[in-house]
TrEMBL record:
<keyword id="KW-0645">Protease</keyword>
<dbReference type="GO" id="GO:0005886">
    <property type="term" value="C:plasma membrane"/>
</dbReference>
<dbReference type="GO" id="GO:0008233">
    <property type="term" value="F:peptidase activity"/>
</dbReference>
<feature type="transmembrane region" description="Helical">
    <location>
        <begin position="313"/>
        <end position="330"/>
    </location>
</feature>
<dbReference type="InterPro" id="IPR014263">
    <property type="entry name" value="Methanolan_biosynth_EpsI"/>
</dbReference>
<feature type="transmembrane region" description="Helical">
    <location>
        <begin position="118"/>
        <end position="143"/>
    </location>
</feature>
<feature type="transmembrane region" description="Helical">
    <location>
        <begin position="193"/>
        <end position="212"/>
    </location>
</feature>
<feature type="domain" description="Methanolan biosynthesis EpsI">
    <location>
        <begin position="314"/>
        <end position="502"/>
    </location>
</feature>
<dbReference type="InterPro" id="IPR017540">
    <property type="entry name" value="Exosortase-1"/>
</dbReference>
<feature type="transmembrane region" description="Helical">
    <location>
        <begin position="219"/>
        <end position="239"/>
    </location>
</feature>
<keyword id="KW-1003">Cell membrane</keyword>
<dbReference type="GO" id="GO:0006508">
    <property type="term" value="P:proteolysis"/>
</dbReference>
<feature type="transmembrane region" description="Helical">
    <location>
        <begin position="79"/>
        <end position="98"/>
    </location>
</feature>
<protein>
    <submittedName>
        <fullName>Exosortase A</fullName>
        <ecNumber>3.4.22.-</ecNumber>
    </submittedName>
</protein>
<feature type="transmembrane region" description="Helical">
    <location>
        <begin position="155"/>
        <end position="173"/>
    </location>
</feature>
<dbReference type="InterPro" id="IPR019127">
    <property type="entry name" value="Exosortase"/>
</dbReference>
<keyword id="KW-0378">Hydrolase</keyword>
């Protein structure tokens, strides 16, 4: 027999829960509308980027975890909690910082944390304690992990060369490139294993909570869930190299795509679960926490005493959303005034050169108002390529330090080889093209009075400037040289850097600030 939704609502939802649940739904709707762009970007990554396809299951997993706690929740009464509003304000501040600074991870994390804080604000700390793990599991909604790719490439390459030597294949490693009699192999970004590592982190966290009571066993399982995919990915890469020695690179690559993809890692997951099965110590029908500690906890009792009505909490949440929307809209329009044109200045002891590099190299600076690329030469044969990009602001679509920006442009002949020598005030990386042309690139950033090699510090400076409604341009400077023909790229760059004088002032002159 058909029953109207209203009848189902009245028969299944306790009267003490009805208004708070409606208020929570309205609060979540407001907060998701405020961060609508971030939710759209996240969903696009979940749906279209294979690294994050598993995140599509996270909302359903969180919903199932809440469902397993339904009997516990029925015995608790929600009570709005004003300190939860402070948590929401903090989350929205993080969202604002990420939005005005163009840091998607920060804005997306803030968007998720705002929902978590709103639940605590509307339903109270005791409900929060009952839903602690499902709430924490929502952090996996944020697409993260791209930052791990370079480190995972290096780790994988080092493990692969050990396995390659162990299997009797002569090989030489140079950064993430491994040369064998069968050919030159690159541990590329797609081979870093980050895709499976992120998925395993989400799965491992779920299994550790659902299948174990012991904190020691949970920690051991999580360690295995992190280490095993790294080792398995290294074995996968080594297997490709091993097969290529006798069957050729094309056959090995095809075999890698067919077997060493998710089929191989599905077997790894099964092996991990099978190996841990005997130590599972939690009853699958007993996933909810006990009500007695929640009700008897003096700390939770003290926290719950700071209550307000859920209606008032909803009104304050609406005011917070409106206030942060206005702040974001104002700050997002702040842009520095750029000069009509810029040019590379003269450098003592160096001359502008019309020579071209052996292999074309042109950094990327998406959204920059001005870009310059020129070559300088000095007596003795030293040459340095100089790239300058000037931005009116830093936000989504014009981030100087974003992935794929700067010296290494995806889709070109150039590949990341290894971390370069330590150079004060700049990042340095070795790039490789055509298997033999080696280039050192030194990157630094300028924002206001800040000169840094840190992408994090640059983003923070840009965030603060925009939030304080200050109009500051941002610059990216890349000094680069080829390391071949007897020329020492690091020495050439150091010599040019010394001739520049104060780097910050040199960059300011290009931007017309001095």
């Amino acid at each position: 027999m058909f029953r109207a939704p209203a009848a189902i609502w009245r028969s299944h939802i306790s009267p003490v829960w009805r208004a708070p649940l409606i208020h929570l739904g309205l609060a979540w709707a407001m907060l998701m509308a405020l961060a609508g762009h971030d939710w759209a970007v996240m969903f696009d990554k979940w749906w279209n980027v294979s690294t994050y396809n598993h995140v599509l299951f996270v909302p359903f997993i969180a919903g199932w975890l809440v469902w397993t706690r339904r009997d516990l929740l029925a015995r608790l009464a929600p009570a709005a909690w004003w300190p939860g509003l402070v948590l929401v304000a903090g989350a929205l501040m993080l969202w604002l910082l990420g939005t005005v600074g163009g840091v998607n991870t920060a804005s997306q994390l803030g968007a998720v944390m705002a929902l978590q804080g709103a639940l605590l604000a509307v339903l109270g700390p005791r409900i929060g304690a009952a839903l602690l793990f499902p709430l924490a599991y929502l952090f996996f909604l944020v697409p993260f992990g791209d930052e791990l790719v370079p480190a995972l490439q290096t780790i994988t390459a080092k493990l692969v060369i050990v396995l390659t030597h162990w299997s009797g294949i002569p090989a030489v490693i140079d950064g993430v490139f491994i040369e064998t009699p069968g050919g030159l192999f690159e541990v590329a970004e797609a081979c870093s294993g980050v895709k499976f590592l992120i998925a395993m982190a989400a799965l491992g966290t779920l299994v550790a909570n659902v299948c174990f009571k012991s904190l020691r066993r949970r920690a051991a399982f999580m360690a295995a869930a992190i280490i095993l995919p790294i080792i398995a990915n290294s074995i996968r890469a080594w297997g490709t190299i091993y097969i290529a020695q006798s069957q050729g690179i094309e056959f090995a690559a095809g075999f890698d795509h067919i077997f060493y993809g998710w089929i191989f890692f599905a077997l790894v997951v099964l092996a991990l679960l099978a190996g841990a099965w005997r130590w599972f110590d939690r009853d699958p029908d007993d996933l909810a926490p006990s009500i007695e500690p929640i009700m008897a906890s003096p700390r939770l009792g003290w926290l719950a005493s700071h209550s307000i009505t859920s209606r008032r909490a909803l009104v304050i949440l609406g005011a917070l959303a409106a206030g942060f929307y206005a702040w974001s809209a104002t700050a997002s329009r702040i842009e520095a005034q750029l000069p009509v044109s810029i040019e590379l200045p003269a450098v003592a002891g160096w001359q502008r050169s019309a020579d071209t590099p052996a292999i074309a190299w042109s950094p990327r600076a998406t959204g920059a108002g001005h870009r310059l690329l020129g070559r300088y030469s000095a007596n003795g044969g030293a040459t340095v390529d100089v790239f300058v990009a000037l931005y009116a602001a830093q936000d989504d679509g014009r981030e100087a330090s974003a992935a794929g920006e700067g010296a290494l442009v995806p889709g070109t002949q150039w590949r990341w080889l290894d971390t370069g020598p330590v150079i004060a005030g700049a990042n340095s990386d070795y790039l490789l093209a055509d298997g033999h042309v080696k280039r050192l690139a030194r990157t630094s950033y300028r924002s206001g009075n800040v000169l840094t090699d840190s992408a994090v510090r640059l983003k923070l400076a840009a965030m603060v400037d925009r939030m304080m409604l200050r109009r500051q341009p941002t610059m990216m400077l890349i000094l680069s040289a080829e390391d071949q023909g007897g020329a020492d790229a690091a020495a050439s760059i150091a010599k040019f850097r010394q001739a520049m004088g104060d780097e910050g002032e040199w960059m300011d002159r290009i931007a017309g600030l001095r």
